[in-house]
Amino acid sequence: MEAKKVMILIRSAPYGMATAGEGFRALIGLASMGIQTHVVLADDGVLVAHKGQAPEALGMHKLEDAYSQLADFGARLYVHLPSLTKRGLLKDDCISVEFISDEKLRELIFEVDHVITFN
Amino acid sequence: MEAKKVMILIRSAPYGMATAGEGFRALIGLASMGIQTHVVLADDGVLVAHKGQAPEALGMHKLEDAYSQLADFGARLYVHLPSLTKRGLLKDDCISVEFISDEKLRELIFEVDHVITFN
Amino acid sequence: MTIGFLLRTGPYTSQNVDTVYHLAKRFLAKGYQVRMFLYEDGVFNLAKEIQSPQERNLAGMMAELVRKGAKIRGCGTCAKFRGLKMADIIEGTKLAGIVVFSNYLKECDRFLSFGF
Amino acid sequence: MTIGFLLRTGPYTSQNVDTVYHLAKRFLAKGYQVRMFLYEDGVFNLAKEIQSPQERNLAGMMAELVRKGAKIRGCGTCAKFRGLKMADIIEGTKLAGIVVFSNYLKECDRFLSFGF
Amino acid sequence: MENLYLVTRSTFERTAWQLAARLAKPGDTVCFIQDAVLAVNGPKELRGKLGELESTGVSVKYLAEDLAARGLSAPQEKVINYDGFVELIEKSKRIVS
Amino acid sequence: MENLYLVTRSTFERTAWQLAARLAKPGDTVCFIQDAVLAVNGPKELRGKLGELESTGVSVKYLAEDLAARGLSAPQEKVINYDGFVELIEKSKRIVS
User: Fold this and answer.
1) What is the spatial distance between Cα B27 and Cα C105, in angstroms, rounded to a whole number?
2) Would you tell me the crossing angle of helices C16-29 and C58-67 to the nearest 10 degrees?
3) What integer pLDDT is reported at residue A1 of this predicted model?
4) Which residues of C touch E92 (CB under 8 A)?
5) In a 3-state reduction of DSSP, which class is residue F36?
6) Total domain count, chain F
7) Could you tell me where the DSSP H helices lie in chain D?
8) In this structure, is the dihedral angle defined by the CA atoms of residues D81, D82, D88 and D92, taken in order, positive or negative?
9) pLDDT at residue F25 greater than cutoff 90
């Protein structure tokens, strides 16, 4: 069993569905197991990186904080810029991430063995 | 407890989600209990009325046949025409239903006590 | 006033059950009647074995609504198709047929549907 | 060749489990290895009490894949949050942690995800 | 108060909001909750449509708790919290989701 | 064969197909299954985009069993059955859904 590189592609907004939260749990697990992991936020997934989340009144945990820790697990976090722009959000509205174009996203996909989608 | 009139609004295509099938089971139950029931197919729900469905290879039952029996249960079946047209389908592609405009759909909503959505 | 809910999604997967809980709690606090029919995956919100360390417990929240007076019933056929039995659900709730859903609709002044 | 699946939706609600079944059956018939990790509502596809009169039995279809050689594991944490226990699932399958998912990813030549 | 059109799913990922926008009439309310609060940012087609509806007397609301969860905001007069949402349901004849 | 972009949700109700359309390159395949087979009828924006992609060498496929279930059809050369779908997965380097 050779080491694999994977991309975790998060395509849903936080809180409405558990997708972004459950995706985080999976990706932390994979990164901890030594799987080289790129995390890409695309489509509504970009909301995960949006600053100022306050889901306490819903009794939920803040995903902004969770995803901010990704570097500690050796996973790299990217935001698909066209998805962000389409949603009327700016780079400054986001936690620290790397912003990528379609072209760069395509390159990242070609670098990995598997793409695991959380949609 | 006075008698109520309800509208069942089916908004999903058959087979991809169980929605249209489960909606049918609920509406047959309600109609049998003497609740006056209008059934409206809108958005992808219009596919329920599309003729020529053959889901046997998927191991599923044909919803076209199920919805064709609605009149026997005293429920009236309507298709939202703008939804049908948007999906490139014609009236002739459908089983026997009444086609309605936005205006008529709005009128039907005003006639009922509750709108139960299967989306 | 009596408020009814149809809830078709399960616990933790969708925010629907949270929305329904937050609304129902407030309606009950106002002295209103609450009726809830759980359909399709919605029946899983009643699973009494739900354990949710460090998270809200949705079955517990359903139980809280029941204690406060809400009537909550799950669709028996949906439960059967999903392997959930009467013994698996929280106290004060039951699995029932469409006849109960039908009665809820008759009783309710307002009705809300939450699906996919 | 080894084919992996991540399945996040439950039985009867979404067609995903059917799509995965129809693909996995064919891969197994070709002599390929199949690995399946069930996440979130996906764990319910293993519920051994599923009864589906006049309909396909999805737990039975999962069991068929296991008999034909597929390795199927459900996420233990997801199951716990949903009130599903080890005793509730079909023979030949288990609840497991992300370490198993991680091993499946390492073993697989192709990987498909099915969600919402 | 007439009908309440409730939109729950993201206006960027789903087209479900369009039926509410087609059917809402003066006196009705369109209320965005859960991921549908993303509607404060669009898409553009939705923003235009909501502007038209509001000019004819359709009320547009966003649920405060769902906005806050996602770090979003809307003009104060269009924001209701859960207590306001409860009142809106009471006052509406029917809820269409 | 390069990447396989798999679209499962209705192209009328969801915008998920758009990411596949943005990313697919010559040699890639975009395959519509489940409710996404409605793509044979649109929407118009999708039809235009697929035409462009095909002219550059992107392959577009629809799953036969899912078309038939819904009473839909597509040009024969674009239809694959489950056996063809299995082969498509084998031949693709990665599957992006």
Assistant:
1) 12
2) 20
3) 53
4) 110
5) helix
6) 1
7) 16-29, 58-67, 76-81, 98-107
8) negative
9) yes
What's E60's domain CATH number? 3.40.1260.10
CB F36 within 8 A of CB F72: no
HSE-up (13 A, CA, CB side) for residue C46: 34
Question: Which among D101, D107, D115 has CB closest to A1?
Answer: D107
Q: State the CATH number of the domain containing residue B113.
A: 3.40.1260.10
Q: Which domains does chain D have, with CATH numbers?
A: 2-114 (3.40.1260.10)
pLDDT digits (tens, 9 = 90+) for A23-54: 999 999 999 999 999 999 999 999 999 999 99
Q: Where are the alpha helices (DSSP H) in chain A?
A: 19-32, 63-68, 81-86, 102-111
Distance between B112 CA and the closest CA of chain C, angstroms: 12
- CB B29 to CB C107 under 8 A? no
In E, minimum Cα distance to F14 occurs at: E14
Q: Does the pLDDT value for residue E84 go beyond 80? A: yes
Looking at the complex, report in whole angstroms how far the Cα of residue F50 sits from the nearest Cα belonging to chain D: 23
Pairwise CB contact (< 8 Å): F12 & B44: yes
pLDDT given for residue B3 in this prediction: 72
* Chain segment D23-72, per-residue pLDDT in tens: 999 999 999 999 999 999 999 999 999 999 999 999 999 999 999 999 99
User: What one-letter code names the amino acid at F44?
Assistant: K
Contact flag C49-D84 (C-beta cutoff 8 Å): yes
Tell me how many degrees the CA angle F49-F53-F58 measures, rounded to the nearest 5.
Answer: 145
Dump pLDDT digits (tens) for F75-92: 999 999 999 999 999 999
Which structural domain range is residue B82 located in? 5-53+60-118
Q: Does the distance separating the beta carbons of D26 and F8 come in below 8 Å? A: no
